[in-house]
Amino acid sequence: MSDRERVLGRVRRALADVTPDDRPYEAAVERDYLREHGERTAERTVELLAENLADYRAIVHRCGRAELPSLIGRLLAGREAGSVLVPPGLEPGWLAGTDAVRVPDRAGSTPHELDRVDSVVTGCAVAIAETGTIVLDGGPGQGRRRISLVPDHHICVVRVPGQVVSSVPRALERLDPARPSTWISGPSATSDIELDRVEGVHGPRTLEVILLG
């Protein structure tokens, strides 16, 4: 007997006395839990997102659509970024204010090649105000998971208020469970037993979030 058969056998024995339920999963599982904490206006929800992003040491910027290319250009210049990773579907105008070399997101790119890129610019799928979390699901302008983890500098554009929700349950309502998602709460960081914080261990050392109004 293989390990797989042994595990599946234990699962079948554990479920032997469970009454069959033919209802759809959405109906079989009660979801009467609290969906969000309190009521907020759209403006207050965006403010809460900005506060929690900053609390996680993300750098928060605000601008309108007309100012976005010049802002991204200044942020890349401030990092002296000579190259920027570009995911498929990113709006071309977003990078109109920079002379940095565009590096397309290719399936064949190795981690070492991505590590040589200075910055990456992406959009997002949704942003969660209560947790200060940005979620990428690989949609247009977001690219594959590793492009937001390998380069040391990540600029993420969040459209407000349309892409901002108050809570995790509200975010899950918008996400496709069949798509891989990356949940980002501030720049990558970890702490050792002495609680010394080290950033950039598992992802970008610097996260800049642009709230595009």
Automatic annotation (TrEMBL):
Residues 48-212 form the LUD domain. Gene3D superfamilies: NagB/RpiA/CoA transferase-like. This is LUD domain-containing protein. It comes from Streptomyces lucensis JCM 4490.
